[in-house]
Amino acid sequence: MTTSPDRVRARFPGISTRAWEHPADRTALVALRTLSGFDVLLRTLSGLLQERQHRLLYLATAVRVDERQFRSLHQLREDCVNTLDARTTPEIYVLQTPHVNALTIGMDTPFIVLTTGLIDLMDTEELRFVIGHELGHALSGHAVYRTMLMHLLRLTSSIGWMPVGGWALRAIVAALMEWSRKSELSGDRAGLLCGQDVDASVRVHMKTAGGTWIKEMNHGAFLEQADDYERSGDLRDGVLKLLNLELQSHPFSVLRAAEMRRWIQSGEYDRILAGDYPRREQDRNTSLGEEIKQAARSYRENFDQSEDPLIKTVRNLGRDVGAAVNTVGQEVTDTVSKIGKRFDDWRKGEREN
To answer: What span, in angstroms and rounded, lies between the C-alpha atoms of 23 and 20?
Structure first.
């Protein structure tokens, strides 16, 4: 493996994480960061939730990346740190497992875990994208909030006196998973900024979906699947899409590639490459109200442009409500009723893990 760059990559001095954060993701982060005493709460939970135990576990069972071990990954990390002008360099651990996965965890000092299944699957530029993706998570504070929220949710399922239960807990889980999916879109943007190789970034999602047979796959055809997914079917399919995403922490691979394509087509990626991006020094002046407005604009644009049959029906609800009811019928009612059981099964699995 070589890390010699095959192109001159732009660097982004002083870049703010706001440059790559998805509007919905960024709104939640700004709101959390503005809460008085929130950092104190995080540190307290970090001690209570045995974060040191997690790091010690990987120190004992995985390989820590540095200039002596997995030097190629070490160099890719250094490249990404320099490209995003990161103030800190998170540790990376390589874990032996055939599962293809990468994650960033930790509340006080986030660190990155890459599996050997993922490393074996990806080439150098694809790994650069993956490491940039995880670095984006670390810099945006995703590891902090995700670790805290997931532990709190486990507490609510295991401690009977917690004042959360039933449908209230399900709503919290749904909100958490929605935020988590949006944070993955932010990570993809950070990965693209690090690698600045659109083809490699799409190949990562192609391989995640289809494995090593990349020669049998086609970039354009893969992206067309997202268009077919959005347009195809009737109203019932629109509901089933929502149910398929339920309790998923990551968006589906095809849809992530399509979302990245939309970001590029919006012109935002090219503007950042040209040096037009928000700076960290401006973060203190960030307005929560403005962030919420940007998120609302993003959702509205996606809503107005969507070809999904369910969204189109909702958009035209005023004149189509009768047809909508007739189309959905009892089938959708029966499907929706399965949500509770699926959630209970998921929560049971969380307790066992």
So the answer is: 9
What's the alpha-carbon Rg for the chain, to the nearest Å? 21
Residue pointed to by tokens 């690090």: 194
| Model confidence pLDDT, tens digit, residues 5-32 | 456 899 999 999 999 998 878 766 665 5
- What distances in angstroms separate CA 67 from CA 6, 73, 87, 109, 131, one per listed residue? 22, 9, 19, 20, 16
Is the confidence at residue 241, as pLDDT, over 60?
A: no
* Apex 168 CA angle, 247 and 104, nearest 5: 40
Q: What is the dihedral of CA 236, 242, 246, 248, to 10 degrees?
A: 130
SS3 21: coil
Amino acid at position 236, single letter = R
Q: SS3 for 73?
A: helix
The angle formed by the CA atoms of residues 215, 262 and 295, to the nearest 5 degrees, is 140
The answer, yes or no, to whether residue 320 has pLDDT greater than 50, is: no
Residue 83 CB contacts under 8 Å (≥ 6 apart), including other chains: 9, 10, 11, 12, 132, 193, 194
pLDDT over 50 (residue 198): yes
d(CA 14, CA 86): 8
Which residues on adjacent β-strands are paired with residue 279? 15
- Give kind and range of the element (H or E) at residue 94: strand 92-95
